[in-house]
Write a structure and sequence with these properties.
- Helix content is 56%, strand content 0%.
- With 115 residues, the chain is mostly helical.
- It has two domains: 34 residues; 71 residues, Cytochrome Bc1 Complex, Chain D, domain 2 (Orthogonal Bundle), CATH 1.10.760.
- Helix 4 crosses helix 5.
- The protein is rod-shaped and about 70 Å long.
- About 16% of the residues have low confidence.
């Protein structure tokens, strides 16, 4: 006689499948790592020529915190050039900022989180 009964093995398979499905759902819900930049819905798209309607702190909170916490930014120290490179990289990943908003944000970051 085998060590495990057929019903015991079937229960293990069911539990394994359910756990796997839950993990997959969690990855999808958390936006699993993807090399493609995320796109904001059309209603949130920013015109590249629009004047900045917000100050740097507001831009940090409303645009940067879409993908990560503001503390991830505020715990970092960079020069203005370093912040500009970081903001450019985030724009490449889908951050929605006009050129004028980028300038305001970089100025704010360099003044408040610079060396």
């Amino acid at each position: 006689m085998s060590r495990y009964s057929r019903s015991h093995i079937s229960l293990q398979v069911i539990v394994f499948v359910v756990v796997g499905l839950l993990l997959m759902a969690l990855l999808v819900a958390c936006g699993s790592s993807s090399s493609e930049p995320t796109q904001a819905p059309a209603s949130e798209t920013v015109s590249p020529t629009a004047a900045p309607a917000q100050d740097g702190a507001t831009l940090l909170e409303t645009r940067c915190s879409v993908c990560h916490s503001a503390s991830r930014v505020t715990q970092t120290t960079k020069t203005a050039d370093g912040w500009a490179q970081t903001v450019d990289r985030m724009i490449g990943k889908g951050a929605q900022l006009s050129d004028a908003e980028k300038a305001v944000l970089v100025e704010y970051l360099a003044a408040n989180y610079g060396p």
